[in-house]
Amino acid sequence: MPNVSGNAYALSVLSPIRNDKVGTVSRADLVRDRLEQWNRLQNSPMAKVPQTYLCRFFVLDDVYTESLPSAGALDTVTDFLPVVPNTLRVGVLPAQDRLQSKYLVFSSNFHGDLDTYLLGMWNAITAEIKDVWQHCYGFDQVNDANTFSAYIKKCQLPVTLFFVGSNDEPLEEQLKGLYLKQEFARFAVEHQGIPSAELKKAYRAFIARVQPTNLQGPTWEPGQYIMDKQRNVQQEAAL
Amino acid sequence: MTQPLDLTDIQADVIRASAHGGYLFARYVFFNIRDGEKGRAFVAAVAAEVTNAVIWEQGAATPPTVINIAFSYQGLKELGLPRASLNGFPDEFVMGMKARRAILGDNGPSHPDNWDPIWQANRVTRDKDVHIQVSINGKTPQDVEVRTQWLLALAGKPESGVFLLTGHRGPNGQQNLLYQDVHALFENGVPTPKEHFGYTDGISDPVFEGQPGEPWSAQGRGKQMADGSWAPLATGEFLLGHVDEAHEYPPAPQPQLLARNGTFMVYRKLHENVHAFDTLLEREAQTYPGGKELLAAKFVGRWRDNGAPLVSAPDAAAKAEWDQRFATATPQEQDRMLNGFTYDQDMSGSRCPFAAHMRRINPRASLQLKAGALPGQFVGNPGAFDTPGALANRRRIARRGLPYGDSTDRSSDRGNHGIVIMMLNADINRQFEFVQQQWINYGNDFRAANDKEILLGNHDKEFPSKAVLPVDPESEDVPYFVRNIPRLVETRGGEYFFIPSLTALRLIARGLVDPT
Question: What is the pLDDT of residues A55-101, one digit of tens each?
Fold first, then answer.
C-alpha cells in the first residue's frame, strides 16, 4: 500500500504552476522567491505544522523524456526492410515529451493520517500556504481547510519511499525522547560516582524537572536544530 | 601478485616516514615564487638533490639527509602548469586547507586567525602565498643545518626567483622564525617515539602494495580479508596513477606523467595543550576506577609507555603479562602484538572505547556492528560486506612528521609545542577530510552520537564534550563518563600540498607539462 508505513505517512504533491506572468515575472519565479524567503527565517513555517517529521519544497522546471522506439512487430519488420526510407523510420519514433507547466513539488513525511495533517497544516500556516500556492492552477478554488484538503489530494502522487531518519511515533514523543536523551546524558555526566542515596535524591529531582510523561514540556521545540547561538543572532539581525 | 613500485621515481617520505628510518630531526622550509621561470630553475636545482625511495630498499645506503619537495596549488600555478592540467586537480586541493576550515572543524582556537603568521598570511595576498615546501630530514641537527645552508644559498641567488617565507612561532614568543623545526623527543638523551602528551606515536602506519618491507608487516596495517588474514592495501589509496581499493584510478590531473607516483600531503601544525591534558587526566583519574595510566590509555586505545593495545591488554594485570611476552618476542611477533589485532572481541568498546584516537582513525572491521540484546551491547555483523575492512579501507592515511617544541614547562597551555603531522593520501576529501569531519569531530558512525574523538576533537566550551568509556555489557560495572573535555589540540596552520614523482618534478622544472 503506497503512502503509509506503520503510522508514518509519505505525502508527495505536484501542483502545476500557472504559465502566465505577473507583470514581467513568471509565477514559477515568484513561487521560488517565496520559498527562498523561508531560508532567511530562523525556522521554516513548516515547523509550526503539527506532526511534520521532514518536508521539502521545490519548483520542478521540466522533465524531458525521449523514449526509445517501441518494440512492436511493425518496428521489427521495418528494421529488417532496408527499402523503408530513413525519414519514414524516424518519423514513427515517439516524439520528445515535456511537462505542460512548471510544478510546485511538496513532499512531507509525517505522523498520522492525511486529513488530520492537512487540517493542521491549513490552521497553522494559512497565510504561507496561500502565499505560495496562489500561483498554482486550481488553487483559486481553495478557501478553507476542506477545499485545501481536496485540492492537495487532487495533486497527490502515490509514493513508497520514506524518510528513514525518523520512527513511527508522534512528533511530540520523538521530540520528548530526544530531549530526555540529551538531559539524561547530562545528568549521568554531572552525577557520576556520587553515593547512591544522593544519586537517588538527585534522580528524583531530575525526573521532577524533566517530566518524562509530559509531552507538552519541558521538551524540544519542533524544528529545533540550530545549536549555534551566534548564527541565530546573525540571522535574526539580518531580518 | 604484488607489483614492485618504481622506487627511483617516488620521493622517499612517500614510501616510508623518514623518522622511522632514523632521521629524527627535520626542518620544513617554505617559499613563495616571485618569478615563474626562475622559480622553475630553482625547482630544478632542488630536484637534483631530492631523495628517492631507493634508500628504503633492504641494505641500501642511507644518506645523511633526506630532501623532499611539495607544492601547493598556487605554487603549481606560479610554476606555469598549463590551465588544462591545473583544472584536473581536485577541488579541495585547489581551495586549500584554510578554505576547508568548516569541514575540518578548525574553529575557535583552531581558526586560521590564530594560526602562525606564515599560515595566516597564506592565501591572502599573492606575495605571501605558500607555494613550495622543502623538507630536510637529518640524522643530526648538524646534517639538517648543512643542507639548510645549501638550500638558502640556492634561494638567495638573485636569479632564484623564490622568496623564503618566514613567520613560524617559536618557543620564546617568537613570531617570525625562518623555518619549522621538528624533532623526535628525547628522554635522558635517548630518542623516543613519544609526543608531548606522553603517548608512543606512529605505530600503525598503513602498508600498501609495493612498499619494500617484511611480508608480514601487513598484519593489522593493511586490510583484513574475508578469511581474517591481512594483505597490503591497494597502492592507489596512497599513490596516484595506481589502482585503488575500488579498482579505479584515483582522480588526478593530466597528463598521466604529472600525477603517477605522486600523492597529496596534508600539512598540519597541531599545538598540544599539555597543561589542559594533564589537568583533565589528573581530575578524571581521581574518580576513574581504573587509575590514571589506564585512563590515559583509554583516550588513545594504547598504553602510553609502549603502545600496547588495550584490546590485547585491557587492564594493568593483562598489561604486565603483555609486557613480559613483548620483551622476549621476535620482531615479527612484536609487530603482530602491536598491530595485528581486531576489535572482534571488543565490539561494545569495553576495552578500547569508541572515542579513543586509534579506534576513530582506523576502526578496522569494528563499524560492521549491530545492537545486541543487552543495553550498550554491540555485536559483529559478519557478512554485511565482502571483507571485514570494507568501511575502513578507503579512509586510511599514511602519517609522516615529528613533534616540535619543548614541553618540560607544563604549567600552562601557552608554550609552543605539538606535532607537525603530514598525512599522505590519494584523495584528500575521501580520506583525510572524511576522517577529520566524520570520525574525529562526530561520532555517529560509532553509535556515539556527537561525541568527538578525545584528543583531536574540536571540543567546544559552550557545549562541553563528554566521552563514554563503556564496560562489558554482561558485567555489573557502570560506564565511565569523561567530563568537560577541553580543546586538547589546536590547529596552528597548514595547507594541502602535492608531492610529485621525480619524473613529474623534472617536467614541472622544465616547463614541459603537456596535458594534450
Answer: 999 999 999 887 665 556 666 666 667 676 777 666 666 677 889 99
pLDDT digits (tens, 9 = 90+) for B315-355: 999 999 999 999 999 999 999 999 999 999 999 999 999 99
pTM over 0.80: yes
A176 close to A170: Cβ distance less than 8 angstroms: no
Best CA proximity match to B466, nearest among A191, A41, A94: A191
Residue B460: closest CA among chain A residues belongs to which residue? A228
Residue A113 within a domain: yes
Domain count across chain A: 2
Q: What is the pLDDT of residues B253-282, one digit of tens each?
A: 999 999 999 999 999 999 999 999 999 999
ipTM of model over 0.90: no
Element (H, E) at B274: helix B274-285
CA angle A67, A71, A74 (to 5 degrees): 120
Does the pLDDT value for residue A230 go beyond 50?
Answer: no
Name chain B contacts of A192, Cβ cutoff 8 Å.
287, 480-481, 483
**A189 touching B (Cβ < 8 Å):** yes
pLDDT digits (tens, 9 = 90+) for B84-118: 999 999 999 999 999 999 999 999 999 999 999 99
Instruction: State whether residue A229 sits within 8 Å of chain B by CB.
Output: yes
Q: Establish if A79 belongs to a structural domain.
A: no
Same domain membership, residue A219 and residue A103: no
Does the residue A215 lie in any domain? yes
Give me the residues of A, 199-228, that contact B with CB < 8 A.
227
Instruction: Give pLDDT tens digits for B433-465.
Output: 999 999 999 999 999 989 999 999 999 988 889
CA distance B426 to B473: 40
Q: Are residues A27 and A116 in the same domain?
A: yes
Match 591481512 to its residue by C-alpha cell: B230
**Does A47 lie in the same domain as A113?**
yes
Q: Is residue A153 part of a domain?
A: yes
Pairing, β B378-380 against β B398-405 = unpaired
Angstrom CA distances, B488 to A157, A195, B103, B158, B484, stand at 53, 31, 19, 44, 11
Q: Which residues of B touch A185 (CB under 8 A)?
A: 466
Q: How many CB atoms lie within 10 A of CB B414?
A: 10
Contact call for A193 and B462, based on CB within 8 A:
no
* Optimal mutation site among A189, A190, A227, A228, interface B, most CBs of chain B within 10 A: A189
Regarding whether A137 and A191 lie in a shared domain, the answer is: no
User: Which residues does chain A have within 8 Å of residue B466's beta carbon, measured at their own beta carbons?
Assistant: 185, 189
Q: Is the pLDDT of residue B359 over 80?
A: yes
Cβ neighbours of B465 in A, within 8 Å:
none
User: Cβ atoms within 10 A of the Cβ of A226, count?
Assistant: 11
What is the percent of chain B where pLDDT is above 90? 91
- Asked whether the beta carbons of residue B287 and residue A193 sit closer than 8 angstroms, the reply is yes
CB within 8 Å: B483 and A229: no
Cα-based angle A191, A196, A198 (whole degrees, multiple of 5)? 60
DSSP one-letter code for B432: I
Q: Which of B2, B6, B30 is nearest to B501 (CA)?
A: B6
pLDDT over 80 at A229, yes or no: no
Beta bridge partners of B266: B423, B496
